[in-house]
Write a structure and sequence with these properties.
The complex is a heterotrimer of chains A (250), B (164) and C (472). Chain A is α+β, with helices and mostly antiparallel strands and 250 residues long. Chain A contains 7 helices and 10 strands. Chain A is 34% helix and 27% strand. In chain A, a hairpin with a 2-residue loop joins strand 5 and strand 6. By secondary structure, chain B is an alpha+beta fold. Chain B has 4 helices and 5 strands, in the order αββββαβαα. The chains are: A alpha+beta (250), B alpha+beta (164), C alpha/beta (472). At the A-B interface, strand 1, strand 2, strand 4, strand 5 and strand 6 of A face strand 3, strand 4, helix 2, strand 5 and helix 3 of B.
């Protein structure tokens, strides 16, 4: 078993994989790429022929969409209810944007593929959302670096995985123009939110929800779940949840 | 009742109860060893809970903002106690020799899942965060980059290091 | 006073109890001991499950200890209630090992401890949780009701149990008919069901995926299955299979009738003389009474006979049952049979309608001349029921039969008549081999106790004494 790295473009971003595996590594990585490609083909709003684009153009009713789309939509709606609208697939312009959920689904599937192929230690990073399993090449807990929103070239913090957490997701304002639609007054909002969670979907949804909601709602949004949060204000101020504070001090 | 039945019942029941007690004792020791105390080596014994979540720390008096003489700053996890909400572990943060914050962490809820009933985020200094940095970052999490943006990102730098 | 005697011919052969009989007895006693051990162990298991999960932390502080003891009380109390249900379920192995009446005796004895434990469970947890939150128990009730899941149901369960217990106080029970009391008693099923949600959702003991939860749910499933099968389904199936109907009602004496029933495949019932069944006669007036009545004769493949004292609200109508009335049965139950014998001799003592099972027992039993002695106690002016049949049977089997007539002694409490007491007779006077005899007693409750007193005074062990009681 050796460590392999792999990188490919998908969903408008770059997916970086590190995995320790013996035989079958190429096949597994090819399958991971296929998973991402297939989901991208269905859900990308940047491709005219994707199912979601056709739905956006009203060529295809949502009710007649494929089970994959329906499941993703249902997941997104459930989270919309849980976060009281902070996380929502419905853009203000009426288009259904499932990007938030789909990337997480793709990462999860990738993890399953690698696990099924016999890999025990791996890391899948899709555009800044990361899912881990096992231990790092240095045989320690995986360490995640968090970029400084004010300076993309430097790190704000580095956090070793702790507790039940296996995933890290960060929401912020990216260059592309993003899927985070702010709720309420935009004054008291965070500039960047990083969430550590036991799974990538939870991390992604909570980070998006906390970013979209006024800062005061962080405790409500994060409190009901087993997550840890590091959030950055636009003036650079930071807040963290208790366990993460302990972890940083350790 | 017949003698044989009584004797058999007493012995069997005693054995079963003893077995249960042993299993419980083992289970407790594993739980306490999981409760790691960070850094300074002062064993954590939580002081007054300020929350009204119904948890009690065993054997310590209640008072808010109690001083913990000789305790070094940091966050300590206290003993695990049972309440009707499930198992609760109290965690106390000490700064400047005073308890500045106490939270109750609920270890399991009714469905047996791990839940935190109190997960309040609090301010932290950049310097505290920065000093925790390690040179050995494996992956970078940040706001999503485009394929172009990736090229100038930290993740790209990391990937080059791994690839190279 | 009259004492009739029918003595066996001289030189009658006395046979010792055969080896297979002794072996059967030993097997039954082993089974009995095993069942008793299992019952106690079931209580120990629930306590052990709790200890395994909470460990020493459960008793770390006073609050913790109070709460833990409260939970243990609930666990043991519920386990006892489940045991009570199993005892009342008419499970064949229990009836065959202990006899249904003994099982019901234990059932009744467990009632109070179970109730007190459950009451303690509620109170201790109120106090314990209250101590933990720093509020007094009264306020804590409101808090628990509002915040913990399924607590209203748990309170309801306890309330139902209180109703059941109160209705079982003798003073209250006497006030209404047995069937009303029984209907209230069945509320226990509801109480047990309604308490299950809070057991599974509050606290950590029965959390999803634990061994504790599996065991606890399995316990409920097993008890429910036993009840459904043996208490409800089996009697229904049997009644349908054997299609019993009333054939004839014969007047035996004032207020006493024999009811002959015809049916099919009755041999499959395996009913033995001395056993009883619970009968339900389907007419407008009588269908809602269930009567426990002994067979008064050994059944054939197509007929059964019972002899009833048709007095009182429930039984009075039995004298007027039309031919062809459909009858449903539960049973046969009881170990008041020759299968319970282990000793060379047998002594049967009966009074009043208690002669019924004794007569059937004599007919069924394989008795050598001189092996058995029968003592019938009767009031002054009336021959015992089925007297002629008894005499004929005893004569044909060489069984000695005594009839003790006369009024009771006003001076000394005894099962015998005043004259017999004056002459200093005891059981041994009628049956010299009483110490080596299986004693069968059936009659009014208080009188039966006096017979047993005499027997114990003669040195008989409890295992030698077989009693048929109908007051359950």
């Amino acid at each position: 078993m050796v460590w392999r790295t792999h990188r490919f473009d998908s969903m408008g971003t770059v997916v970086s994989i590190m995995v320790r595996m013996g035989d079958g590594c190429d096949e597994a990585l090819a399958e991971v790429e296929a998973v991402f490609r297939s989901l991208d083909e269905t859900f990308s709003l940047y491709r005219d022929d994707s199912e979601l684009s056709r739905i956006a153009r009203h060529e295809l009713p949502l009710t007649a969409s494929s089970p994959t789309v329906k499941d993703a939509y249902e997941t997104a709606l459930t989270w919309r209810a849980t976060t009281r609208g902070a996380f929502t697939p419905n853009r203000p312009d009426g288009v259904v944007d499932l990007n938030g959920v789909v990337k997480a689904m793709a990462i999860e599937s990738a993890g399953r593929v690698l696990g099924a192929a016999g890999a025990v230690d791996w890391c899948v990073n899709a555009g800044g959302d990361v899912l881990y399993d096992g231990f790092s090449p240095e045989k320690r807990d995986w360490v995640t670096g968090i970029t400084d929103p004010a300076d993309r070239g430097s790190l704000l913090a580095s956090v070793a995985l702790f507790g039940q957490h296996r995933a890290a997701a960060t929401s912020g304002f990216s260059e592309r123009g993003d899927h985070v639609w702010l709720r309420g007054d935009s004054e008291k909002h965070f500039a960047q939110v990083t969430v550590f969670a036991p799974n990538i979907l939870l991390a992604d949804v909570v980070s998006t929800a906390v970013l979209a909601a006024p800062a005061g709602e962080l405790d409500d949004l994060a409190g009901g779940h087993s997550v840890d949060v590091l959030a950055v204000f636009s003036d650079g101020g930071l807040v963290v949840t208790p366990r993460l504070r302990v972890q940083l001090a350790a | 009742m017949r003698i044989r039945a009584v004797v058999g019942a007493v012995i069997a029941s005693g054995a079963v109860i003893l077995g249960g007690w042993e299993a419980g004792a083992q289970h407790s020791t594993t739980l306490t060893t999981q409760v790691a105390t960070p850094g300074t080596g002062v064993t954590g014994s939580a002081a007054a809970p300020q929350t009204s979540s119904g948890s009690t720390a065993s054997g310590t008096p209640t008072a808010s903002a109690a001083t913990a003489p000789g305790a070094t700053d940091g966050t300590y996890k206290g003993s695990v106690v049972d309440t009707e909400y499930g198992t609760v572990q109290v965690s106390a943060t000490i700064s400047g020799g005073k308890i500045s914050q106490v939270t109750a962490l609920k270890l399991t809820d009714d469905g047996g899942r791990s839940v935190q009933i109190s997960n309040r985020a609090a301010p932290i200094l950049r310097s505290e965060v920065l000093k925790a940095q390690s040179a050995n970052v494996d992956s970078v999490s940040g706001a999503t980059y485009t394929t172009e943006g990736y090229l100038s990102s930290l993740q790209a730098a990391l990937d080059s290091a791994h690839f190279g | 006073m009259t004492i009739h005697e029918v003595r066996p011919p001289r030189g009658a052969v006395r046979q010792p109890a055969s080896a297979p009989v002794k072996a059967r007895y030993r097997r039954r006693m082993r089974r009995a001991d095993l069942l008793v051990v299992l019952s106690w162990v079931s209580v120990a298991i629930v306590v052990a499950l709790f200890l395994a999960q909470s460990g020493t932390r459960g008793f770390a502080s006073v609050t913790d200890a109070v709460t833990s003891v409260g939970v243990i009380c609930g666990l043991v109390g519920t386990d006892l209630i489940l045991l009570m249900m199993v005892l009342a379920a008419r499970v064949p192995i229990i009836d065959g090992t202990f006899g249904h009446d003994k099982a019901m005796l234990v059932h009744r004895k467990l009632g109070k401890p179970a109730f007190y434990l459950l009451l303690a469970h509620g109170i201790l947890l109120l106090i314990g949780y209250g101590m933990a939150s720093g509020v007094n128990p009264v306020v804590e009730v409101g808090a628990m009701w509002a915040t913990l899941p399924d607590m209203p149901l748990a309170f309801l369960a306890l309330a139902l149990l209180v109703v059941v217990i109160v209705s079982s106080f003798v003073a209250v029970r006497r006030r209404f008919p047995y069937e009303v009391w029984h209907a209230i008693h069945l509320l226990t099923y509801l109480a047990v069901l309604v308490a299950i949600p809070h057991q599974l959702s509050v606290g950590r003991l029965f959390v999803d995926g634990t061994l504790q939860r599996t065991y606890w749910l399995a316990l409920y499933v097993v008890v429910a299955a036993l009840l459904v099968i043996y208490r409800f389904l089996l009697p229904i199936v049997r009644s349908l299979r054997h299609s019993l109907t009333v054939r004839r009602v014969i007047r035996v004496a004032d207020g006493v009738v024999s009811i002959e029933l015809s049916g099919r495949h009755l041999r499959e019932l395996n009913a033995s003389g001395g056993q009883f069944l619970v009968w339900r006669f389907w007419t407008g007036k009588t269908w809602w009474h269930a009567h426990p009545l002994s067979l008064s004769a050994v059944p054939s493949d197509s007929s059964l006979r019972i002899t009833v004292r048709a007095l009182g609200a429930g039984s009075g109508a039995l004298a007027y049952l039309p031919t062809g009335t459909k009858v449903s049965i539960e049973g046969p139950y009881g170990i008041f049979t020759q299968d319970a014998r282990t000793l060379p001799h047998a002594v049967m003592v009966a009074a009043g309608i208690g002669v019924t099972p004794v007569r059937a027992l004599i007919e069924q039993a394989e008795l050598a001349p001189g092996e058995a002695v029968v003592i019938i106690r009767a009031a002054s002016d009336q021959p015992p029921y089925l007297w002629q049949e008894l005499r004929t049977l005893c004569a044909s089997k060489g069984v000695v039969i005594f009839l003790v007539e006369g009024s009771r002694s006003r001076v000394l409490a005894s099962w015998q008549s005043a004259d017999a007491v004056e002459r200093g007779y005891t059981l041994a006077s009628y049956a010299p081999d009483i110490a080596k005899s299986d004693l069968y007693v059936c009659g009014p409750a208080h009188w039966t106790d006096l017979v047993i007193q005499d027997a114990r005074a003669q040195g008989l062990r409890r295992g030698q004494i077989h009693v048929e009681r109908f007051d359950w």
